[in-house]
Amino acid sequence: MKPTLFVLAAGMGSRYGGLKQLDGLGPHGETIMDYSIYDALQAGFGKVVFVIRKDFEADFRSKILSKYQGHVPVEVVFQSTDRLPDGYTCPADRSKPWGTNHAILMGREAINEPFAVINADDFYGRDAFEVIARELARPHSRPGDYCMVGFRVGNTMTENGSVARGVCVTRDGLLTSVVERTAIAYNASGDISFTDENGTEQILEPNTPVSMNMWGFTPDYFDLSDREFRKFLDANINAPKAEFYVPLCIDPLIRSGEATVKVLDTTSRWFGVTYAADRPGVVAKFASLHADGTYPEHLFI
Fold first, then answer.
1. Three-state secondary structure readout of the chain
2. What are the residue boundaries of the structural domains of the chain, listed by start?
3. CATH 2.30.30.240 fits 4-141+212-248+269-291, yes or no
4. What is the pTM of this model?
5. In this structure, which of 49, 143, 211, 263 has its CB flanked by the most CB atoms within 10 Å?
6. Average pLDDT, stretch 269-276?
7. Mean pLDDT of 209-237
Protein backbone atom coordinates (compact mmCIF):
# COMPACT_ATOMS: atom_id res chain seq x y z
CA MET A 1 0.00 0.00 0.00
CA LYS A 2 1.42 3.36 -1.02
CA PRO A 3 1.54 6.04 1.71
CA THR A 4 -0.56 9.21 1.59
CA LEU A 5 0.78 12.75 1.66
CA PHE A 6 -1.20 14.98 4.05
CA VAL A 7 -0.63 18.67 3.28
CA LEU A 8 -1.44 21.26 5.96
CA ALA A 9 -2.63 24.29 3.99
CA ALA A 10 -5.08 26.01 6.35
CA GLY A 11 -2.65 28.57 7.81
CA MET A 12 -3.56 32.22 7.71
CA GLY A 13 -0.23 33.40 6.28
CA SER A 14 -0.41 36.45 8.56
CA ARG A 15 3.34 37.13 8.66
CA TYR A 16 3.67 36.75 4.90
CA GLY A 17 0.73 39.03 4.17
CA GLY A 18 -1.54 36.75 2.15
CA LEU A 19 -2.44 33.21 1.17
CA LYS A 20 1.12 32.09 0.53
CA GLN A 21 -0.11 28.55 -0.22
CA LEU A 22 -1.43 29.93 -3.53
CA ASP A 23 1.61 32.06 -4.42
CA GLY A 24 3.27 31.15 -7.71
CA LEU A 25 7.03 31.06 -7.04
CA GLY A 26 8.33 28.81 -9.81
CA PRO A 27 9.17 29.90 -13.38
CA HIS A 28 5.67 28.96 -14.60
CA GLY A 29 3.75 29.97 -11.48
CA GLU A 30 4.39 26.77 -9.53
CA THR A 31 3.59 26.88 -5.81
CA ILE A 32 5.78 25.32 -3.13
CA MET A 33 3.09 22.66 -2.80
CA ASP A 34 3.57 21.74 -6.45
CA TYR A 35 7.22 20.91 -5.81
CA SER A 36 6.37 18.91 -2.69
CA ILE A 37 3.74 16.88 -4.52
CA TYR A 38 6.04 16.31 -7.50
CA ASP A 39 8.80 15.07 -5.18
CA ALA A 40 6.35 12.92 -3.20
CA LEU A 41 5.04 11.20 -6.33
CA GLN A 42 8.59 10.53 -7.49
CA ALA A 43 9.28 8.99 -4.06
CA GLY A 44 6.28 6.63 -4.20
CA PHE A 45 3.33 8.34 -2.51
CA GLY A 46 -0.05 7.32 -3.90
CA LYS A 47 -2.59 9.93 -2.72
CA VAL A 48 -2.68 13.53 -1.52
CA VAL A 49 -5.03 14.94 1.11
CA PHE A 50 -5.15 18.70 1.73
CA VAL A 51 -6.54 20.39 4.83
CA ILE A 52 -7.65 23.94 4.05
CA ARG A 53 -10.06 26.59 5.27
CA LYS A 54 -13.51 26.63 3.73
CA ASP A 55 -13.28 30.33 2.89
CA PHE A 56 -10.67 29.85 0.15
CA GLU A 57 -11.95 26.52 -1.21
CA ALA A 58 -12.98 27.94 -4.58
CA ASP A 59 -9.59 29.51 -5.29
CA PHE A 60 -7.82 26.43 -4.03
CA ARG A 61 -9.75 24.07 -6.27
CA SER A 62 -9.37 26.22 -9.38
CA LYS A 63 -5.75 27.27 -8.94
CA ILE A 64 -4.25 24.23 -7.20
CA LEU A 65 -6.24 21.01 -7.46
CA SER A 66 -7.03 21.22 -11.16
CA LYS A 67 -3.38 20.77 -12.14
CA TYR A 68 -3.12 17.38 -10.40
CA GLN A 69 -5.96 15.74 -12.31
CA GLY A 70 -4.73 12.59 -13.98
CA HIS A 71 -1.55 12.53 -11.89
CA VAL A 72 -2.67 11.53 -8.39
CA PRO A 73 -5.92 11.00 -6.41
CA VAL A 74 -6.68 14.07 -4.29
CA GLU A 75 -9.06 14.76 -1.39
CA VAL A 76 -9.81 17.94 0.57
CA VAL A 77 -10.80 18.27 4.23
CA PHE A 78 -11.49 21.45 6.19
CA GLN A 79 -10.15 22.94 9.42
CA SER A 80 -12.21 25.41 11.40
CA THR A 81 -12.18 26.62 14.99
CA ASP A 82 -15.56 25.05 15.74
CA ARG A 83 -14.48 21.51 14.72
CA LEU A 84 -14.04 20.22 18.26
CA PRO A 85 -14.71 16.84 19.91
CA ASP A 86 -18.17 16.12 21.27
CA GLY A 87 -18.76 17.94 24.54
CA TYR A 88 -16.60 20.98 23.71
CA THR A 89 -17.77 24.35 22.38
CA CYS A 90 -15.46 26.87 20.77
CA PRO A 91 -15.42 30.22 22.61
CA ALA A 92 -17.24 32.88 20.60
CA ASP A 93 -14.20 35.18 20.50
CA ARG A 94 -11.77 32.49 19.26
CA SER A 95 -10.31 33.43 15.86
CA LYS A 96 -6.92 31.71 15.90
CA PRO A 97 -6.80 28.14 14.50
CA TRP A 98 -6.23 25.38 17.05
CA GLY A 99 -2.87 24.40 15.58
CA THR A 100 -1.14 21.81 13.46
CA ASN A 101 -2.21 18.68 15.33
CA HIS A 102 -5.83 19.83 15.26
CA ALA A 103 -5.39 20.15 11.48
CA ILE A 104 -4.14 16.55 11.36
CA LEU A 105 -7.31 15.39 13.13
CA MET A 106 -9.33 16.74 10.21
CA GLY A 107 -7.94 13.93 8.03
CA ARG A 108 -9.38 11.14 10.11
CA GLU A 109 -12.13 10.19 7.67
CA ALA A 110 -9.97 10.49 4.57
CA ILE A 111 -6.83 8.54 5.53
CA ASN A 112 -6.65 4.80 6.22
CA GLU A 113 -3.00 4.09 5.40
CA PRO A 114 0.43 5.27 6.62
CA PHE A 115 0.80 8.97 5.89
CA ALA A 116 3.32 11.79 5.93
CA VAL A 117 2.41 15.25 7.21
CA ILE A 118 3.97 18.37 5.68
CA ASN A 119 3.38 22.11 5.70
CA ALA A 120 2.10 23.61 2.45
CA ASP A 121 4.54 26.52 2.50
CA ASP A 122 7.82 24.69 3.23
CA PHE A 123 10.18 23.30 0.61
CA TYR A 124 11.56 20.06 2.02
CA GLY A 125 13.67 18.70 -0.84
CA ARG A 126 13.55 15.41 -2.71
CA ASP A 127 15.80 13.46 -0.34
CA ALA A 128 13.45 14.17 2.58
CA PHE A 129 10.50 12.67 0.69
CA GLU A 130 12.52 9.64 -0.35
CA VAL A 131 13.64 8.78 3.19
CA ILE A 132 10.17 9.13 4.72
CA ALA A 133 8.50 7.23 1.86
CA ARG A 134 10.84 4.26 2.41
CA GLU A 135 10.08 4.26 6.12
CA LEU A 136 6.30 4.45 5.67
CA ALA A 137 6.32 1.70 3.03
CA ARG A 138 7.78 -0.91 5.38
CA PRO A 139 5.48 -3.19 7.43
CA HIS A 140 4.11 -1.67 10.65
CA SER A 141 3.17 -4.44 13.05
CA ARG A 142 2.29 -2.38 16.13
CA PRO A 143 0.50 0.86 17.01
CA GLY A 144 2.59 3.91 17.78
CA ASP A 145 5.33 3.10 15.25
CA TYR A 146 6.01 6.57 13.85
CA CYS A 147 8.82 8.59 12.30
CA MET A 148 9.90 12.13 11.48
CA VAL A 149 12.47 13.73 9.23
CA GLY A 150 15.07 15.51 11.35
CA PHE A 151 16.52 18.57 9.66
CA ARG A 152 19.67 20.29 10.95
CA VAL A 153 18.58 23.64 12.36
CA GLY A 154 21.36 25.43 10.48
CA ASN A 155 19.75 24.26 7.24
CA THR A 156 16.34 25.68 8.15
CA MET A 157 16.93 29.34 8.96
CA THR A 158 15.92 32.59 7.28
CA GLU A 159 17.83 35.88 7.48
CA ASN A 160 14.56 37.81 7.59
CA GLY A 161 13.25 37.01 11.07
CA SER A 162 12.53 34.28 13.57
CA VAL A 163 11.19 30.80 12.84
CA ALA A 164 9.29 28.16 14.81
CA ARG A 165 10.95 24.75 15.06
CA GLY A 166 10.47 21.64 17.16
CA VAL A 167 13.85 21.21 18.87
CA CYS A 168 14.59 17.49 19.21
CA VAL A 169 16.57 15.29 21.54
CA THR A 170 17.38 11.79 20.28
CA ARG A 171 18.81 8.54 21.63
CA ASP A 172 19.79 5.56 19.47
CA GLY A 173 18.01 7.08 16.50
CA LEU A 174 14.72 7.59 18.35
CA LEU A 175 13.11 10.84 19.43
CA THR A 176 13.12 11.25 23.21
CA SER A 177 11.62 14.73 23.38
CA VAL A 178 10.57 17.59 21.14
CA VAL A 179 9.78 21.10 22.31
CA GLU A 180 8.25 23.71 20.02
CA ARG A 181 10.32 26.89 20.07
CA THR A 182 8.47 29.70 18.34
CA ALA A 183 11.20 32.38 18.04
CA ILE A 184 14.49 30.87 16.84
CA ALA A 185 16.69 33.45 15.11
CA TYR A 186 20.27 34.58 14.55
CA ASN A 187 21.48 36.72 17.45
CA ALA A 188 23.84 39.68 17.26
CA SER A 189 26.85 37.33 17.31
CA GLY A 190 25.54 35.26 14.42
CA ASP A 191 24.63 32.29 16.60
CA ILE A 192 21.29 30.49 16.32
CA SER A 193 19.38 31.07 19.54
CA PHE A 194 16.03 31.26 21.28
CA THR A 195 14.80 32.55 24.63
CA ASP A 196 13.48 29.81 26.92
CA GLU A 197 10.52 29.94 29.27
CA ASN A 198 12.77 31.40 32.02
CA GLY A 199 13.86 34.30 29.83
CA THR A 200 17.34 32.85 29.26
CA GLU A 201 18.95 32.82 25.83
CA GLN A 202 19.82 29.32 24.63
CA ILE A 203 22.28 28.70 21.80
CA LEU A 204 21.59 25.92 19.28
CA GLU A 205 24.45 24.25 17.43
CA PRO A 206 23.82 24.29 13.65
CA ASN A 207 23.57 20.47 13.54
CA THR A 208 20.87 20.32 16.25
CA PRO A 209 18.01 18.19 14.84
CA VAL A 210 14.70 20.01 14.51
CA SER A 211 11.25 19.12 13.30
CA MET A 212 10.07 20.90 10.19
CA ASN A 213 6.64 19.35 10.69
CA MET A 214 7.48 16.43 8.39
CA TRP A 215 6.06 13.51 10.34
CA GLY A 216 5.19 9.94 9.45
CA PHE A 217 2.21 8.27 11.14
CA THR A 218 -0.06 5.26 10.90
CA PRO A 219 -3.85 5.72 11.22
CA ASP A 220 -3.89 4.78 14.93
CA TYR A 221 -2.44 8.25 15.51
CA PHE A 222 -5.88 9.80 15.04
CA ASP A 223 -7.30 8.10 18.16
CA LEU A 224 -4.31 9.10 20.27
CA SER A 225 -4.49 12.66 18.92
CA ASP A 226 -8.18 12.94 19.80
CA ARG A 227 -7.45 11.85 23.36
CA GLU A 228 -4.55 14.30 23.77
CA PHE A 229 -6.55 17.13 22.17
CA ARG A 230 -9.27 16.67 24.77
CA LYS A 231 -6.65 17.03 27.50
CA PHE A 232 -5.36 20.16 25.77
CA LEU A 233 -8.85 21.67 25.58
CA ASP A 234 -9.53 20.92 29.23
CA ALA A 235 -6.53 23.10 30.12
CA ASN A 236 -6.59 25.70 27.31
CA ILE A 237 -10.02 26.11 25.75
CA ASN A 238 -10.33 29.68 27.08
CA ALA A 239 -6.77 30.66 26.15
CA PRO A 240 -7.28 32.56 22.87
CA LYS A 241 -3.76 32.01 21.51
CA ALA A 242 -3.07 28.45 22.70
CA GLU A 243 -2.37 26.01 19.84
CA PHE A 244 -2.24 22.22 19.79
CA TYR A 245 1.08 21.70 18.01
CA VAL A 246 2.25 18.25 16.91
CA PRO A 247 5.02 18.20 19.57
CA LEU A 248 2.38 18.78 22.27
CA CYS A 249 0.79 15.50 21.20
CA ILE A 250 3.92 13.50 20.42
CA ASP A 251 5.92 14.30 23.56
CA PRO A 252 3.50 12.74 26.09
CA LEU A 253 3.06 9.67 23.84
CA ILE A 254 6.81 9.13 23.83
CA ARG A 255 7.06 9.60 27.59
CA SER A 256 4.21 7.15 28.22
CA GLY A 257 5.77 4.55 25.93
CA GLU A 258 2.71 4.51 23.66
CA ALA A 259 4.75 5.73 20.69
CA THR A 260 8.26 5.55 19.30
CA VAL A 261 9.42 8.03 16.69
CA LYS A 262 12.35 7.11 14.46
CA VAL A 263 14.33 10.20 13.44
CA LEU A 264 15.28 10.04 9.77
CA ASP A 265 18.35 11.92 8.61
CA THR A 266 18.26 13.93 5.39
CA THR A 267 20.66 15.89 3.25
CA SER A 268 17.89 18.29 2.21
CA ARG A 269 18.00 21.99 2.97
CA TRP A 270 14.73 23.74 3.79
CA PHE A 271 13.56 27.00 2.34
CA GLY A 272 10.23 28.76 2.39
CA VAL A 273 8.36 32.06 2.53
CA THR A 274 7.94 32.69 6.22
CA TYR A 275 8.19 36.43 5.50
CA ALA A 276 7.51 38.52 2.40
CA ALA A 277 11.22 39.37 2.24
CA ASP A 278 11.95 35.66 1.71
CA ARG A 279 10.11 35.63 -1.62
CA PRO A 280 12.80 36.91 -4.05
CA GLY A 281 15.33 34.39 -2.78
CA VAL A 282 12.88 31.51 -3.10
CA VAL A 283 11.97 32.54 -6.66
CA ALA A 284 15.68 32.56 -7.56
CA LYS A 285 16.25 29.12 -5.99
CA PHE A 286 13.40 27.54 -7.93
CA ALA A 287 14.68 29.08 -11.18
CA SER A 288 18.08 27.58 -10.46
CA LEU A 289 16.63 24.11 -9.72
CA HIS A 290 14.85 24.13 -13.07
CA ALA A 291 17.93 25.42 -14.88
CA ASP A 292 20.20 22.68 -13.51
CA GLY A 293 17.72 19.91 -14.41
CA THR A 294 16.62 19.05 -10.88
CA TYR A 295 13.07 19.74 -12.04
CA PRO A 296 11.65 19.59 -15.58
CA GLU A 297 10.42 22.74 -17.29
CA HIS A 298 6.83 21.87 -16.32
CA LEU A 299 6.06 19.78 -13.23
CA PHE A 300 2.57 18.69 -14.33
CA ILE A 301 1.54 18.50 -17.96
1. CCCEEEEECCCCCCCCCCCHHHCCCCCCCCCHHHHHHHHHHHHCCCEEEEEECHHHHHHHHHHCHHHHCCCCCEEEEECCCCCCCCCCCCCCCCCCCCCHHHHHHCCCCCCCCCEEEEECCEECCHHHHHHHHHHHHCCCCCCCEEEEEEEEHHHCCCCCCCEEEEEEEEECCEEEEEEEEEEEEECCCCCEEEECCCCCEEEECCCCEEEEEEEEECCCHHHHHHHHHHHHHHHHCCCCCCCCCHHHHHHHHHHHCCCEEEEEECCCCCEECCCHHHHHHHHHHHHHHHHCCCCCCCCCC
2. 4-141+212-248+269-291
3. no
4. 0.89
5. 211
6. 85
7. 97
